[in-house]
Write a structure and sequence with these properties.
homodimer; alpha/beta; Aspartate Aminotransferase, domain 2; Aspartate Aminotransferase, domain 1; 2 domains
Chain lengths: ~425, ~425
């Protein structure tokens, strides 16, 4: 028998683009003794979570609930419930997670059309709209905040264009939900997938999604009730049934809706975590929370620049919660990251594909996005770079960040 | 904005066939601050969890790790990674969860062959083996412990027969893992899926699985590395690629194995919970734990019988951790369940399909399987039945259960 000790982890300062530090109130919520899934005390918590999720998504959609899995489970649930074999799916790609959408859509039998731009850029919305007119896809799938490049794609014109061209608009807002505006209704997005482990500061393991009537109609046409619990009225032949049982939104609706038809066993403790996470978001206030993310971002950026480093994503379309720093010539980026981790207990990220070895990515998301963390990561990065023989002007970074912090008369509540 | 109070749940005595009460040590483990997914401190916890899972599954398989989702996510991950379009899959059905296997296999393009027996029965192993010879399936998918009927299917002859007939043997051990023997290697089972929210007393939200080289070969032939992180060497045309990205075992192996290729973001807190849960199982000892389940089962059964009630599953193939009680004629089973919940805070279960309204199901799983709970549920059931004008001999149930408990000279450590 292999026996191990109880969990005894080091306490890290997590400044990656996710997973980030979990709010201590969320950690406490998870230690609540569980309830049965059909206990009225539990279904009430499910309903409350749906209601709060609607506010976080800024939507009046009936359907707003989590998929029990990590963020990409939410992407797959929406894509596999919507995409039928041979459907045309247009995917504009500006980083790694666009490729993930391609990967999932392709496995679900889609005819994929992609347009790509260089990593670090985003698309003019008009370019995407023109491509939609040309391709006439059934679905547009697009990333809102691309953590691999630190860029954010404007969507406010794309949603309405999709409506006009009768294209379903599916948006990966895993990185942005709870950290910056994701205006589901105003932008006319048909389905949006959020993530827990980023700006919501809830552990990975659930994927909150929302979708509107247009998506529900597509899903309803493919609906099958599970054998073993179906009634005769439920039995019918279905064209293009959804290929997954676990991710079948039509079944999940019956579980989250008033029919409460048994599907999976809801992940109780993660539901507690998500409920507490979105409660904290609404308690802080969406506007206030987004402003907090921008404020700490500014302190970080000023500090990084004062150190003499360059940003990779110093652009109008910068993702506010991910700051990408160019690795100075001749510096081993991984060695810097390892020293940050081993000497300071700070985690920052590298990147993928064409940006691997070129940039560091510093996340300022949710509970990790607070003053002490920004100041500590700047101090540590300066010290580690000096240790790597990089000529940085010692002391400037913290002074620049403090200037930002002191520019507000109030002490910022972290 | 919809604002709600902090979580403030009633404390229940959960005596269903899952989800059951979570061990308090597991609840505490979940409140541990998280680590990044590639933090060496975290990957070590992942490796330790794999090692302990192997012991719980009684296997030397290299692969033993959780799928990040509820139990049925584990079923779907294995089935969709193994089943190719048109594969013949034989599914013996003796309750609801056999139908679920059919549902998942069918959606993955399988040609389904089923044999059924009445709910409450199991199959003679020879019957299944003969059917395999006739059908010559690629895969046999079967439930080990059927919670809907409280029956357990013997598998010790089926595994070796599958090996001989070159059939992959996939077993749903969601209800049995950690509560009774699941001898993966000795019974020659090729892939086995366990559940967390039953005998492991971990919340729902992860599905530990294990599989051997025979399964790995099938999966490897369908392997595709994800776009956006693949190298040129990874790019090749694949016949019959796996239809899901989230459930692609070939990608999950690369994530859980030494290559540590990014896939999802591991559900950190659930991994802490699972690690603590399997640690507790091994600390207790498999044999001791299985004996404890049988011992409390005996006390419950004696108590139920002494009350004058009949068991539905008083058979040699009874599932030790689920006791099914026939609802006496003229009694509204749901009214009894509701009174147990509202007056005593005790949850027991009804059943599905042909057994709905016919039986109650009382679970004795994991942390819920302890003396206080058994005695409380017997006392409460007696009182509630008296309240429903059922002529039970007051007091007998607890005396019978106490006889069992006193038959051991030692006080049973619950």
């Amino acid at each position: 028998m292999s026996m191990f000790h109880e969990i005894n982890t080091p306490l890290r300062t997590i400044m990656t683009p996710g997973p980030v530090e979990v709010d201590p109130r969320v950690l406490r919520a998870m230690s609540t003794p569980i309830l049965g899934q059909f206990d009225p005390a539990f279904t009430q918590l499910m309903n409350e979570t749906m209601e709060m999720l609607r506010d976080v998504f800024q939507t009046k959609n009936q359907w707003a609930f989590p998929i029990d899995g990590t963020s990409r489970s939410g992407l797959e649930a929406v894509l596999c419930s919507v995409i039928k074999q041979g459907d045309k799916v247009l995917i504009p790609i500006y980083g790694r997670f666009g490729h993930l959408l391609t990967e999932i859509a392709e496995r679900n039998g889609a005819e994929i059309h992609i347009i790509e731009c260089e990593w670090g850029e985003v698309f003019e919305q008009e370019v995407i709209i023109e491509e939609m007119k040309r391709v006439q896809p059934d679905v547009l799938a697009i990333v809102h905040g691309e953590t691999s490049t630190g860029c954010m794609q404007p969507l406010d014109q794309i949603g309405p264009a999709c409506r006009e061209l009768d294209v379903l608009c599916i948006v990966d807002a895993v990185a942005t939900i709870g950290g910056t505006d994701v205006k589901v209704d105003e932008w006319q997005l048909d389905a949006v997938i959020g993530g827990t482990q980023k700006c919501l500061s809830v552990p990975s393991g659930m994927a909150p999604i929302t979708y509107n009537d247009r998506v529900e109609q597509v899903v309803a046409a493919r609906k099958k009730v599970e054998r073993g619990i179906s009634t005769e009225a439920d039995q019918k032949d279905v064209l293009n049934p959804i290929r997954s049982n676990y991710f079948d939104l039509s079944q999940l609706q019956d579980y989250w809706g008033p029919r409460r038809l048994n599907h999976h066993t809801e992940a109780t403790s993660m539901l507690y975590a998500l409920r507490e996470g979105v409660r904290i978001v609404l308690q802080e206030g969406l506007e206030e929370r987004f402003a907090r993310h921008r404020f700490h971002e500014k302190a970080l950026i000023e500090g990084v620049k004062a150190m003499g480093l360059e940003l990779f994503n110093d652009v109008p379309w910068k993702l506010p919660m991910v700051t990408c720093v160019k690795i100075p010539d001749g510096v081993d980026g991984e060695s810097v990251r390892m020293m940050l981790l081993h000497q300071f207990g700070i985690e920052i990220a590298s990147s993928f594909g064409p940006l691997h070895g070129k940039i560091w990515r510093i996340g300022t998301m949710g509970y990790s996005c607070r003053k002490e963390n920004i100041l500590f990561v700047l101090a540590a990065l300066e010290a580690v770079l000096l240790r790597h023989q990089v000529k940085v002007q010692a002391g400037n970074a913290l002074q620049a960040a403090l200037n930002v912090y002191e520019s507000k008369n109030i002490v910022v509540k972290s």
